[in-house]
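Team,

Forwarding the record for the chain on the shared tracking sheet. I've put the sequence and predicted structure together so nobody has to dig through attachments.
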Amino acid sequence: MSGNPRIGPKIVVVGAGAFGTALAAVAAAREKANVTLLARREEVAAECRQTGRNEAALPGISLPASLAFSSDMAVLVDAEIVLFAMPSQAHRDAARSYGPAISSNATIVTCAKGMEQSTGRLLTDVLDEELPGHSIGVLSGPGFATDIAKGLPTAMVIAAPDTEIATELAEALSGRTFRLYPSGDRIGVQLGGALKNVLAIACGIVEGAGLGDSARAALISRGLAEMSRFVVARGGEPETVRGLSGLGDLVLTATSHQSRNLRFGIALGKNGGAGEPGGELVEGAFAASVAARVARELGIDMPITEAVAAIIDGKLDVATALEQLMSRPITQE
């Protein structure tokens, strides 16, 4: 990631949704930045070039004049850092589509919060498999796209197999209002980002069902214990769970109505778990069934995650799930 000393490393953000656009905007706001937002459709890139905005993804937010827009994957050829900002379930196909155009020296960073539903694998594992020879990092933590794009203070985590690479990435992507903390724990950072979405759905169910703030606090604290057990069992560090990508992201997503996962849970709670709240992509809905399945295979006790997965799958209603959770044997805190 050397680059011209007078210009920053060439960064390409793949995915012109809200989060990808926000990350591209904050990276492009840096002095001497060299950032391109790569959209799947040319009409999206053309609108961004003409208006300086991505109204479909971030309405009303002006993007930096230095940010370039393209739909041509040829921009990847000399990119030094490539951010994958598409949904988690699209990562494998995206790697196969864009991989041939990516420079062999590029560092790739997944910015999604989830696990592959069909295999239960972490997204860095998916990218390691599909894009061998690249250093694969992960960016996660408490940050809403709108807040990032508006320049509101945000702190997140970036993890890589080598902490030296993670530090280089943090320095290349951090800005005046956007700070990245480097980490060497890719497993813990990813699982924190994925599982907090499941727990945010649980907190939404509590809110939608009118069960009170005490129940939400209990879910957050006991959910964090579940997250820690899962992370350790998968080879991550327990300290990571207590940081930005675990506790920090969980508190944000479980309490703010900007969270799609929380809103999804609220809809479930209001109708008792019946029916399908639709409209928005909800990563936690994918992660719940995956995490519950993997937890059973590993013998990890995750009752909240199991309950959320069962409610989403239509196997359990909210009232029954609550009764089962509250009637579990009393154990030491």
